[in-house]
């Protein structure tokens, strides 16, 4: 009998789901986070199950993580996103000593030892160093975030952006643009400013390499390039950096089942309770 493990990571802006068997990911899903987390969790789970070609009854264990983890009614347990990111990254990069997760509304730096979290720090009170910072600037320039990332990656130089506050940085970009500063240099400057903010957070932990970048920010080529320069060595990026937290949650489910022989015996009752949430 094959066991399946599901991890749901409900973030502030994006929700991710992963279903694994005993050896690998068999399906994943990424969607926008809405206001109604419970309905969202059901919908995301259903879509991921459809991609996996299995039913909810086939799932052995469900672990929820992220900002909205308490709003997943069918989860067997909840785990913090810090622990889940660490578990997911450690499985992909056994040599990882540090993680920088750049999400839509916050950024965090995590220090690891033998795959376990020994310290972390978060930036969740300001948009500087988050995906929202880039989104605001992109909108003001009429560009896409991905397009800006490529421009920053290709640019040979950048114009220094002195403001890290999103509102003031947006105004500074507008002023420099009106004074004839090339757009590509401005875009590169924005990415350098964001990398500086993230690096400032990371320095509080004295991160060691290998450093792995996760979250939506890890899909931005310009930002990854700037962060590699800040740390004086290349940072590592997972193939799908958005789902490491959900993957870690699924792996925690696998760990839970392996450690508790009575978990599977009691699963039938939980299964019946959980199915009602899909009606």
Q: What's the overall geometry?
A: elongated
Largest sheet entry: 5 strands, mixed
DSSP helical segment count: 9
- What is the CATH architecture term of the largest domain? 2-Layer Sandwich
The helix/strand class is: alpha/beta
Task: Estimate the mean pLDDT confidence.
Answer: 87
Q: Report, as a whole number of angstroms, the end-to-end distance.
A: 27 Å
CATH superfamily of the largest domain: ATPase, nucleotide binding domain
Helix percent band:
40-55%
Question: What does this protein look like?
Answer:
This protein is of the alpha/beta class. It has two domains: 4-84 and 243-278, ATPase, nucleotide binding domain (Nucleotidyltransferase, domain 5, 2-Layer Sandwich); 95-231, 2-Layer Sandwich (Nucleotidyltransferase, domain 5). The protein has nine helices and nine strands. The chain has helices at 37-52, 81-92, 131-141, 145-154, 166-178, 183-203, 221-231, 244-259, 261-275, and strands spanning 4-10, 14-20, 25-32, 59-65, 77-78, 98-102, 107-113, 116-123, 211-214. The protein has a five-stranded mixed sheet. The longest helix is centred in the last third of the chain and has 21 residues, at 183-203. It is elongated. The relative contact order is 0.19. Mean pLDDT is 87; it is low at 271-279.
